[in-house]
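User: For a benchmark we're assembling, each entry needs the component sequences followed by a predicted structure for the full assembly. Here are entry 17's components. Please fill in the structure.
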Amino acid sequence: MKTFIKTLALGVTATAIAAPAMAQELSLWSWRQEDRAVYEELIAAFEAEHPEITVTFEAFEASSYATILSTALAGDSGPDLMMVRAYGAFEAVAGANYLMPLTEEDVPGLADMTAPAIAAQTLRADGKVYGVPFASQTMLVIYNKGIYEQLGLSEPQTWDELMANAQAVKDAGMYAFANGTATAWQNETIVSALTSSVVGSQFFDEIVAGTTDFTDPRYVSGLRHLQDISAYFPDGFTGLDYASSQQLFASGMAAMFAGGSFEIANFRAQNPDLEIGVFAAPGEAAEDEKLVGVFFDGGYAGNATTEHPEAVKAFLAYTATPEFGQVFANKLRNITPIAGVTLEDGLLNEIAELNRAAVPYIMLTNFRYEEPSGSVLLQAEVQKMLAGESTPEEAAEAVTAGIATYYAPFQD
Amino acid sequence: MPAPTSNGISRTPARTPRLRVSGRGLWITFLLVPPVVVMALFVIYPIFSALAYAFYDWQGLARGDFVGFANFEKVLFQQPFAATTWNAFKNNIFVFFALMIIQNGLGFILAYALWRDLPGARFHRIAVFLPVVLSTVIIGYVWKLFFHPIFGAVNQLLKAVGLGSLATPWLGDADTALNALIFVNAWAWVGFPTLVFLAGLQRIPSEILDAARMETDSELTLIRRVIWPLIAPSATVCFVLLFIGSFNWFELPYIMVGLDGSPYGNTDVLGLYFYRTAFGNQSAGIQDFGMGSALAVLMFLFIAVVATSWTIYLRKREIEV
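Assistant: Structure for entry 17:
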């Protein structure tokens, strides 16, 4: 009897030790339940190449994903592979040493990505990359081509033309812009989508370098332009929330929506007949560079304590290959930072084209690491300014003062 | 332990009563253990762990160094956090007083009307309580639609009756947003104090009222001198629960105006500020468990201390009939 138990125990232990070597089972956590089918397709292609590895895709509700992930990681029951956010939210996970640092040897595709893409997945404290960035989003003006054609309008080349277009739409009894400011974060998107060109790329270089702050006349001028154009937002726009703005545009009641490229999929789903165009909001003069705001959504990362580090690296390397990018971009309609991917969607191509002249979506990319974040400040101050309760100068002053509480370059 | 006999019955005479006591004890234990475990696990443990969290610095989700009262100092005195805390606290106070007047006041008046069996009392007894049964999510969502600046029923109605100049983006206007939330809360919850006051009124013995009516003809005097003191226990319940509810206010503002207390902090309350600090507002900020826990501890202490002392004070003035 004793011998039997001993043999059994030995057998079980041996199987337990050998099993991982035979089949390496990896879990991949995501907040994109809606993308499950495409991920399963991508995983199947990977597994065909690596028969010894199986990857299981698990999705969680987006709004509670961060909490679920960090609780699991803290309790040592995290996944082998996971989607992580970018910038400040990324650092909350990466800074706690939960993620596996990645080199260009592990993930060769990283070498061909742009610096802003890599920066989104780099921990500032040690300069190491912990994730493979997967999609960029662009802040721009989305417009209803039908309305533009009907009124004989064309994509504006100067700020005055943009204002004139808006006036023409308003005169025709429609909403020029669908935007409202009741949902706080919408205030940040409209600043980037509408004023990047007016402010100019020089300012963004300087703010990143820490040689100027938001009271800079160029930034204040951007806010003033925003204030001017808000005259073409719907009546009562201070009470108009995000969902209502989306509906106004998707239903064809408004000619323009200043916001993120991530809106397009939703607009198309809500109203397949809607003909959508995009442009970068222009600067004062036609020759001013037309700029959009860009940020990266997140990345794929590996668990630092995974039992299968090599398999994890193999999968992450795969997420940076053109084969992966091709499916990811065309099936999920995203703009990928992977080099050498051709986009089938005309509109996405156009956005990728606009991305060549881009400035960072600054509060997220550079000032969302400490509290009060630049986003928290800007959102409230713009909301206040557009409600007519403060001036652009006061808004810029308040944003700068808030960031200055922890950011040294703003303190003198 | 005495050995049982072959038929299984103990011969020890003392055993029977002892068994009864321990059986009863077992029964009580059986009933008490589940709630005690649940309370300990989901109430007491979180409160104490929040208390502990509040004394640490947090790097995202990793607990950093012990920092003593630094988080408390930050939320109470360090700008710009302190400004947000005090603004939220001020709004909580406003909400409490406004609801005391509107919700509890109206609740009493309605209860009185129902008690006096005014016409339609049977119908209204149900109608008034109906919104209390509805989920806050539904109420918040529906009223958000009513207050919609373009399609909302409220503005449409104002325009239809020629009061279009009064139409405003109710939830987006700094002057009206918090008041609109208070109105919706009162609309939804007025049935609760009504029910509690009505129960109190129905408990008043009719002899007392008959005797009182012989002394005075004035309904107001009757209410002030006889009825109000006699329903003091109901008032205690309504006041204290409203106090706790006002300072824990979260669901309705969260659903109707979002996590940020839009517009620019005018509807911000401690519950919202706590939530977005502790758990992070994905589209604006990052999470800070330490500061969030400090806020939670302060809210808990404030509510516990004030609610307890107020209850003791209110109990003292209650009269048993």
